[in-house]
Amino acid sequence: MALFSFKYIFFITIPFLILLSCNNVQDKIEIEKSASSFDIKQGEASIMQSNEKLMKAFKTNDSVGVANCFTTDAKLMCSNRPSIEGKENIMRYFSNMMRTGIKEIDLKTIKILGDSSVLAEEGTYLFSDSQKEQIDKGKYIVLWKQEAGNWKMYRDMWTSDLPSSAIEPKRITLSAP
Protein backbone atom coordinates (compact mmCIF):
# COMPACT_ATOMS: atom_id res chain seq x y z
CA MET A 1 0.00 0.00 0.00
CA ALA A 2 2.84 2.43 0.84
CA LEU A 3 4.39 1.71 -2.55
CA PHE A 4 1.13 2.61 -4.28
CA SER A 5 0.90 5.91 -2.41
CA PHE A 6 4.46 6.81 -3.34
CA LYS A 7 3.82 6.13 -7.05
CA TYR A 8 0.58 8.10 -6.88
CA ILE A 9 2.31 11.09 -5.26
CA PHE A 10 5.22 10.83 -7.72
CA PHE A 11 2.97 10.87 -10.79
CA ILE A 12 0.95 13.81 -9.49
CA THR A 13 3.95 15.85 -8.26
CA ILE A 14 6.09 15.59 -11.40
CA PRO A 15 3.44 17.03 -13.79
CA PHE A 16 2.68 19.76 -11.23
CA LEU A 17 6.37 20.76 -11.07
CA ILE A 18 6.64 20.73 -14.86
CA LEU A 19 3.55 22.95 -15.11
CA LEU A 20 4.95 25.31 -12.47
CA SER A 21 8.29 25.62 -14.25
CA CYS A 22 6.51 26.31 -17.55
CA ASN A 23 4.70 29.23 -15.93
CA ASN A 24 8.04 30.69 -14.78
CA VAL A 25 9.43 30.32 -18.31
CA GLN A 26 6.30 31.98 -19.72
CA ASP A 27 6.68 34.87 -17.24
CA LYS A 28 10.29 35.37 -18.32
CA ILE A 29 9.26 35.35 -21.98
CA GLU A 30 6.58 37.99 -21.29
CA ILE A 31 9.04 40.21 -19.41
CA GLU A 32 11.62 39.91 -22.19
CA LYS A 33 8.98 40.57 -24.83
CA SER A 34 7.83 43.70 -22.97
CA ALA A 35 11.41 44.96 -22.62
CA SER A 36 12.22 44.25 -26.26
CA SER A 37 9.06 46.02 -27.48
CA PHE A 38 10.03 49.21 -25.62
CA ASP A 39 11.00 51.95 -28.06
CA ILE A 40 13.81 54.04 -26.56
CA LYS A 41 13.28 56.65 -29.30
CA GLN A 42 9.82 57.42 -27.89
CA GLY A 43 11.34 57.80 -24.43
CA GLU A 44 14.04 60.09 -25.79
CA ALA A 45 11.47 62.24 -27.61
CA SER A 46 9.40 62.55 -24.43
CA ILE A 47 12.46 63.58 -22.41
CA MET A 48 13.50 66.16 -25.00
CA GLN A 49 9.97 67.59 -24.98
CA SER A 50 9.92 67.73 -21.17
CA ASN A 51 13.32 69.46 -21.11
CA GLU A 52 12.00 72.07 -23.56
CA LYS A 53 8.98 72.66 -21.30
CA LEU A 54 11.25 73.03 -18.27
CA MET A 55 13.56 75.53 -20.00
CA LYS A 56 10.60 77.56 -21.30
CA ALA A 57 8.87 77.54 -17.90
CA PHE A 58 12.07 78.66 -16.16
CA LYS A 59 12.60 81.47 -18.66
CA THR A 60 9.06 82.76 -17.96
CA ASN A 61 9.47 82.47 -14.16
CA ASP A 62 6.90 79.66 -14.02
CA SER A 63 8.08 77.56 -11.09
CA VAL A 64 4.84 75.52 -11.17
CA GLY A 65 5.55 74.63 -14.81
CA VAL A 66 9.10 73.59 -13.86
CA ALA A 67 7.80 71.47 -10.96
CA ASN A 68 5.28 69.76 -13.27
CA CYS A 69 8.23 68.18 -15.10
CA PHE A 70 8.94 66.17 -11.92
CA THR A 71 7.17 63.19 -10.34
CA THR A 72 5.25 63.77 -7.13
CA ASP A 73 7.95 61.85 -5.22
CA ALA A 74 10.90 63.46 -7.02
CA LYS A 75 14.17 64.41 -5.39
CA LEU A 76 16.76 67.06 -6.33
CA MET A 77 20.33 66.36 -5.29
CA CYS A 78 22.32 69.54 -5.91
CA SER A 79 25.86 70.08 -4.73
CA ASN A 80 26.51 71.73 -1.38
CA ARG A 81 23.01 71.27 0.04
CA PRO A 82 20.70 68.58 1.41
CA SER A 83 18.38 66.79 -0.99
CA ILE A 84 15.12 68.55 -1.83
CA GLU A 85 12.21 66.13 -1.78
CA GLY A 86 8.71 66.37 -3.22
CA LYS A 87 7.17 68.39 -6.00
CA GLU A 88 6.05 71.24 -3.70
CA ASN A 89 9.57 71.77 -2.30
CA ILE A 90 11.06 71.52 -5.78
CA MET A 91 8.66 74.22 -6.97
CA ARG A 92 9.73 76.49 -4.08
CA TYR A 93 13.41 75.80 -4.76
CA PHE A 94 13.14 76.81 -8.42
CA SER A 95 10.98 79.84 -7.56
CA ASN A 96 13.69 81.06 -5.20
CA MET A 97 16.40 80.19 -7.72
CA MET A 98 14.64 82.46 -10.24
CA ARG A 99 14.68 85.29 -7.70
CA THR A 100 18.45 85.03 -7.23
CA GLY A 101 19.08 86.29 -10.77
CA ILE A 102 19.22 83.03 -12.68
CA LYS A 103 16.90 83.64 -15.62
CA GLU A 104 17.69 80.84 -18.01
CA ILE A 105 18.61 77.17 -17.92
CA ASP A 106 20.06 75.60 -21.03
CA LEU A 107 20.09 71.78 -21.03
CA LYS A 108 22.04 69.69 -23.54
CA THR A 109 21.37 65.97 -23.51
CA ILE A 110 24.42 63.79 -24.18
CA LYS A 111 22.96 60.32 -23.79
CA ILE A 112 19.74 58.55 -22.78
CA LEU A 113 19.59 54.89 -21.91
CA GLY A 114 17.30 52.53 -20.04
CA ASP A 115 14.17 50.48 -20.50
CA SER A 116 10.41 50.71 -19.99
CA SER A 117 10.76 51.05 -16.21
CA VAL A 118 13.40 53.78 -15.92
CA LEU A 119 15.44 55.99 -18.23
CA ALA A 120 18.71 57.71 -17.38
CA GLU A 121 19.73 60.98 -19.01
CA GLU A 122 23.25 62.37 -18.99
CA GLY A 123 23.80 65.97 -20.01
CA THR A 124 25.24 69.41 -19.43
CA TYR A 125 23.62 72.58 -18.16
CA LEU A 126 24.26 76.29 -18.29
CA PHE A 127 22.63 78.81 -15.94
CA SER A 128 22.63 82.42 -17.12
CA ASP A 129 21.25 85.77 -16.02
CA SER A 130 18.96 88.17 -17.90
CA GLN A 131 21.93 89.55 -19.87
CA LYS A 132 22.80 85.96 -20.93
CA GLU A 133 25.94 86.07 -18.77
CA GLN A 134 26.99 82.66 -17.48
CA ILE A 135 26.34 82.11 -13.78
CA ASP A 136 27.15 78.40 -13.65
CA LYS A 137 27.77 75.44 -15.92
CA GLY A 138 28.14 71.77 -15.23
CA LYS A 139 26.80 68.29 -15.79
CA TYR A 140 23.76 66.36 -14.65
CA ILE A 141 22.20 62.92 -14.41
CA VAL A 142 18.43 62.52 -14.32
CA LEU A 143 16.50 59.34 -13.68
CA TRP A 144 13.13 59.41 -15.38
CA LYS A 145 10.08 57.29 -14.65
CA GLN A 146 6.55 57.28 -15.97
CA GLU A 147 3.81 58.94 -13.97
CA ALA A 148 0.28 59.15 -15.35
CA GLY A 149 1.57 57.97 -18.74
CA ASN A 150 4.29 60.64 -19.06
CA TRP A 151 8.04 60.42 -18.48
CA LYS A 152 8.93 62.75 -15.59
CA MET A 153 12.05 63.49 -13.60
CA TYR A 154 12.29 61.18 -10.59
CA ARG A 155 15.85 61.91 -9.44
CA ASP A 156 17.80 64.97 -10.61
CA MET A 157 21.44 65.44 -9.67
CA TRP A 158 23.79 68.12 -10.93
CA THR A 159 27.20 69.48 -10.11
CA SER A 160 29.12 72.52 -11.29
CA ASP A 161 32.19 72.42 -13.48
CA LEU A 162 33.35 75.73 -12.01
CA PRO A 163 35.60 75.92 -8.97
CA SER A 164 33.58 76.88 -5.91
CA SER A 165 35.44 80.21 -5.72
CA ALA A 166 34.14 81.14 -9.19
CA ILE A 167 30.47 80.79 -8.28
CA GLU A 168 28.95 83.74 -6.49
CA PRO A 169 27.32 82.31 -3.38
CA LYS A 170 23.56 82.53 -3.66
CA ARG A 171 21.23 81.41 -0.92
CA ILE A 172 18.33 79.50 -2.33
CA THR A 173 15.95 78.52 0.43
CA LEU A 174 12.68 76.64 0.52
CA SER A 175 10.63 79.58 1.76
CA ALA A 176 7.22 80.14 0.17
CA PRO A 177 7.29 81.92 -3.23
Report the biggest beta sheet as strand number plus sense, adding barrel if it closes: 6 strands, mixed
Please tally the helical runs, counting DSSP H or I stretches of 4 or more residues.
Answer: 4
Question: Secondary-structure element order, as H and E?
Answer: HHHEEHEEEE
CATH topology of the largest domain: Nuclear Transport Factor 2, Chain: A
Q: Judging by the overall fold, what is the CATH architecture of the largest domain?
A: Roll
**Overall strand count:** 6
- Give the overall silhouette: elongated
**Percentage of residues in strands:** 25-35%
Distance separating the two termini:
82 Å
CATH class of the largest domain: Alpha Beta
User: What Rg do the Cα atoms give?
Assistant: 25 Å
Given helix and strand content, the structural type is alpha+beta
The total number of structural domains is: 2
Name the average pLDDT.
84
Instruction: Kindly state the percentage of residues in helix.
Output: 40-55%
Describe it for me?
The chain has 177 residues and is α+β, with helices and mostly antiparallel strands. The protein has helices spanning 2-37, 40-59, 63-67, 87-99; strands at 70-78, 84-85, 104-114, 119-128, 134-147, 150-160. It has two domains: 1-31; 39-166, Roll (Nuclear Transport Factor 2, Chain: A), CATH 3.10.450. It contains four helices and six strands; from the N terminus they run αααββαββββ. It has a six-stranded mixed beta sheet, with helices on one face. β4 (119-128) and β5 (134-147) form a beta hairpin. The longest helix is centred in the first third of the chain and has 36 residues, at 2-37. It is elongated, with a radius of gyration of 25 Å. The chain starts with a helix and ends in a 17-residue tail after the last strand. The mean pLDDT is 84.
